[in-house]
Amino acid sequence: MNLESLLHDRLAPAFAAVAGTPVDPAVRSSPHADLQSGAALALAGRLHRPPREIAAEVAATADLTGIAEVTVSGPGFLNLTVADGWIAAALDAIADDPRLGVPPVPDPKRIVIDYSSPNLAKEMHVGHLRSTIIGDSLARLLDWQGHDVHRVNHIGDWGTPFGMLLEHLAEAPAGTGHSLAGLTAFYRAARVRFDTDEDFRTRARLRVVALQNGDGPTRELWRRLVAQSEKAFLGVYDRLGVTLGAEHFAGESTYQDELAGIAAELAEKGLLTESDGALCAFPEGFTGRDGAPLPLIVRKSDGGFGYAATDLAALRHRVSDLGADELLYVVGSPQRIHFRMVFAVARAAGWLPATVSAEHIGFGSILGADGKMLKTRAGDTVRLSGLLDEADSRATDPALGIAAIKYADLSGDRRGDYVFDWDRMLASTGNTGPYLQFAYARICSISRRAEGAPGPIRITEPAERALALALMGFEPALTAAAGPREPHRIATYLYDLASTFSRFYEQCRVIDAEPETRSSRLALCELTARTLHTGMFLLGVEALDQI
Ligand code: ARG
């Protein structure tokens, strides 16, 4: 239910009649009333009439019967006060609706969302945590809105680093199968050899060639590496309660057979230029610090294809084979230019028609207490599984620890950096995961303890009215979050709702109220619980009936 747009629709014809042209009534929330319109002030100059007079005429013309009281205030504002009876009836209807008054979008889109996308053979680290959490929340939200969402995990499972990994694996003493269990250690050991041993380096390069040429034993080793890493990723997703599964893996290797064709087609369209032996696209409008055009490297000077070529192939596949209307890429902000260039080249090549949108959904970094990128004391990148272990051991309940991490990530604007701080994340007061979880569990316990069933909602007390209005804000909050892909708007809403509930519960007796009042208040409790539960579900934060 969107009160703002309802009142907008009621005021618009009145404004149009008074002004003689369509006018946006600009209905906004206001500290002076439930909602307010300042459109009369903006019209005054054009109509050469005092704003209060315009406002009064609109107030007299508008049909708001049964919905709201309207008064003219100040220099010419329209103050709108929604009728208690109307609010109560609207909430009864929301309570009867399994979707809580949020209709599915009228024009569902096929949305391909690329998120998590860690690199194989390295354990997932905190850098991938944000993509996983933010991406999953957006996928849940868009799904729930009724879009046809395709999740894609574009894991880095190909390319030159694999030469060194596969060679290291091939040279492992037979039967040890050693290293793969500790992927990070395995990767480091391979890296050390690659950096220090010239002969190993040569053998690693030959491995890349063997892999690319489809050499049987090399492919077999590669498959082992892939299987092992995917298993590790799935373990992390499971712990995180993320909706990504094995069916969503579509790593970079998927597109290997397309890459030569991508380069050929770009060349044919006159979009490639040779530069230092590499084949590059120079999309218009991208220049480096020195003002020179920035290249998107499609084929490297050694003849190999890299990250950008793979992204072009993946994009073409998502549009032409998957039939995407919208492409989303949830990837850290440092890759902003990469994606803008990929989109520009794809548009120029005709792979990204004007009807399909492509968005890079960037996000900031997770920082340590020192304000620098989060690192372990030894200066290493923080392993995700270690972080989750710590969450489990710090929280009283594992569900609280994971929720705390996820909520801390989702509750701030994704574009910003944030400091990883256990004490703040796990606090049971303030805008935190545990606060919401306790609030939800408390409401569940009220419902369990109270006698009688929820009944029709009646509004008598200001605290009831405030809670009722907050409950009506669910749909607008979801819409506001989905548009700019900002899960934090849901978090802010839920925190406000939980705080409003808490004031209601301080001021209004529920369990020992008169039967009729009790059933109305129980209905408010139940609707609050359902709204919190759904909102937390959309963030991917677990809601427990009992803690
Ligand atoms: N594997 C990449 C990284 O860790 C992220 C991939 C993002 N998705 C994409 N289509 N490029 O940096």
From TrEMBL:
One of its GO terms (cellular component) is cytoplasm. Residues 1-82 form the Arginyl tRNA synthetase N-terminal domain. Residues 436-547 form the DALR anticodon binding domain. Signal peptide: none annotated. It catalyses: tRNA(Arg) + L-arginine + ATP = L-arginyl-tRNA(Arg) + AMP + diphosphate. The keyword Magnesium does not apply. It is found in: Cytoplasm. Its main location: cytoplasm. It is an enzyme of class 6 (ligase). Transmembrane segments: none annotated. InterPro entries: aa-tRNA-synth_I_CS (IPR001412), Arg-tRNA-ligase (IPR001278), Arg-tRNA-synth_N (IPR005148), Arg-tRNA-synth_N_sf (IPR036695), ArgRS_core (IPR035684), DALR_anticod-bd (IPR008909), Rossmann-like_a/b/a_fold (IPR014729), tRNAsynth_Ia_anticodon-bd (IPR009080). Monomer. Belongs to the class-I aminoacyl-tRNA synthetase family. This is Arginine--tRNA ligase. It comes from Actinoplanes lobatus. The gene is argS.
